[in-house]
Amino acid sequence: MASFAFISVLLAIGMGEAFNGDNFELECPDECDCHYFRINWVTDCSESNLTEVPYDELSKSVYILDLNGNNITHLKRFPGDIKMRRLQIADNRLTKVEKEAFAGLEYLIDVDLSGNNITYVDPESFV
Description:
GO cellular component, one term: plasma membrane
Helix content: 10-25%
Low-confidence stretches: 1-23
Keywords: Cell membrane, Disulfide bond, Ion channel, Ion transport, Membrane, Signal, Transmembrane, Transmembrane helix, Transport
Distance between the termini: 54 Å
Structural class: alpha/beta
Mean pLDDT: 83
Membrane topology: Single-pass membrane protein
CATH superfamily: Ribonuclease Inhibitor
CATH class: Alpha Beta
Shape: globular
Radius of gyration: 17 Å
Number of helices: 1
Organism: Eumeta variegata
Signal peptide: 1-18
Strand order of the largest sheet: 3-4-5-6-8
Largest sheet: 5 strands, mixed
């Protein structure tokens, strides 16, 4: 019985510190609401009056980042160690997408840029 309890503790510690083999940091920017949707970490910063992406406050484990309905005018390079799959940044004030905006986001598969005033997209933005 004691060995079963010991194994359970080891599993709980392992699950708390790792997820898919990565350190599982669940940070959340102050202006945002963060939660799980199924097994995915969602950072919802929609309609938060943001003027820039809170790059330094994002969890490395963020799966979906919702920045819809803010006042963001410029995208800088995201930290390369973020595992983000979906970026929602519709209805902001973006006018262009530079080459470095999505560089390093190896897991990104979906970006919603609708409802912006984009007049220029660097041809290598989504390489």
